[in-house]
Amino acid sequence: MNHFKTGILSVCMVLITAAAHAQSWQIVGSEGFSASEADNECMAIDTNGTPYIVYTDAGNANKATVMKYNGTAWVTVGSAGFSEGIANFTSIAIDRSGTICSVCRCSPWRKCNGNEI
Hints:
Blueprint: H1 3-16, E1 38-45, E2 51-57, E3 63-69, E4 74-77, E5 86-94, E6 100-107, E7 111-112, E8 115-116
Antiparallel strand pairs: 1-2, 2-3, 3-4, 5-6, 7-8
């Protein structure tokens, strides 16, 4: 199932450059930048145009990981595998001040970062 590593995350990264490079598709950063298999990807772009992605990270016990593109490489934001349990249905949003909010439904269906599900 390593096709998720290079397939899904790379495809998402191609999509964010579509508006800026309407005549051609370009990959942002390197392909397959997640450490392991990735699933449940969700992306947001901040007011400066920086893309962020949250996903279920198989390399971190299927917990949620957030990464951003810093202009040259994809880097982890905060701690990799930060959710309390296995992350499902991940989502990310960034407000105008740059505050990142990432949520997920964790299993076992108990808590996800202290919030009852």
